[in-house]
Each structure stands twice: as structure tokens, then as C-alpha cells.
Amino acid sequence: MIEFDTRLTQKLRIAEQKGLFRSLSVFLAHSGDSWFWLAGLILMWVLGNQYWKYRALVLFIAIVFTAIVVFVVKNVFRRKRPEGEWGQFYRLTDPHSFPSGHTVRAVMLAVIMLGIGPLWLGLLLLVWAPLVGLARIAMGVHFLTDVLAGAVLGLLVGGVVLLIL
Question: Residue 125: pLDDT band by 50, 70, 90 thresholds?
Fold first, then answer.
């Protein structure tokens, strides 16, 4: 299974190539960064009305909770990231790849927004989430199974948050 995962992951990788797909993958791979989302949610809290403040608070807490869950799971499995040059920041700050925290976060955000609305934003995030995971594979910082596990974990965490709400 690991050999199959490694071969398929290598076929999806474009980090060493030039062109539009690589540029798009770089953008999408970074779009799931937690600092980006946390900064945006703080801005939403400051500038938004009560409707958006509530959503910003829910998502902020959910992102922090998700980070803790992902940290624990990564330290249980300790799977090394695929070899590569791109994403040195990720490789230095978090050498473990399983599961993809970016994918967990992206799917979790989509699930929560589908549950609390607005629907248009939930649907937009539902399209964006798998693209983040694919971009993380394309840029060589995750294996396919890291992203698939991240999607499942994101569904679970998002569902738990909705149940709590």
C-alpha cells in the first residue's frame, strides 16, 4: 500500500515543473495556511456585523481545535514528508505528513460553513477544499493518503463542531 501510495503521489507531483499549474498549485497550497485564516477571521471579527462575528468566532475556535487534533495525530504516526525542495518552511516546522493539516482545516471549514451558512460560502469552500489537498500533493509536501486521511478527519472534526453548536 505504501509503495502504491508513493508511486501515485509521484505521478501527481508538479513541484519541479514550470508553468500555470505549478503557480496555481503554489497559491492553493498556501491558501490553507492557518495564519492566513486566523488573520482573516480576526479581520472579519473587527469589521463584521454580529452575523459575521459569530462565524469568525466559531471558525477561529474550530481552527485552534483542529490544530491540536492534527498535532496529536501527526505525533502518533510520525510519517515523514515526501522528499523535496518546495515548502521548506513546512518541512522545518512540521516534518510529519500524516495527515495533511491543510486538508483537515480546509474540509473542516467547508463542513462548518455548510452547516451554519451562508450556503454560498460553504459551497465555495467545498470546491476549494479538495483543491488545497491536491495542491499539497502536487507541490510534494504530502502523500495521497495524507490528504485522504486529512479529508476524513476534516469531515469528523467539522461534524463534531456542528454537533457541539
Answer: very high
Better pLDDT: 16 or 124: 124
How many structural domains compose the chain? 1
Which long-range contacts (C-beta less than 8 Å, at least 24 apart) are formed by 27-33? 27/135, 28/128, 28/131, 28/132, 28/134, 28/135, 29/87, 29/102, 29/132, 29/135, 29/136, 29/138, 29/139, 29/141, 31/128, 31/132, 31/135, 32/102, 32/103, 32/105, 32/106, 32/132, 32/136, 33/102
Would you list the DSSP string of 83-103? Answer: S-SS-HHHHHH--B-SS-HHH
Residues, the chain: 165
Please provide residue 66's backbone torsions phi and psi, each rounded to the nearest 5 degrees.
-60, -40
Per-residue pLDDT band at 15 (split at 50, 70, 90): confident
Q: What does the mean pLDDT of the chain come to?
A: 93
Q: pTM value?
A: 0.92
Q: Which amino acid is at 21?
A: F
Those residues whose C-beta lies under 8 Å from the C-beta of residue 123, and which sit 6 or more positions away, are 114
| 146 φ, ψ (degrees, to nearest 5) | -60, -45
Q: Judge contact between 99 and 73, C-beta under 8 A.
A: yes
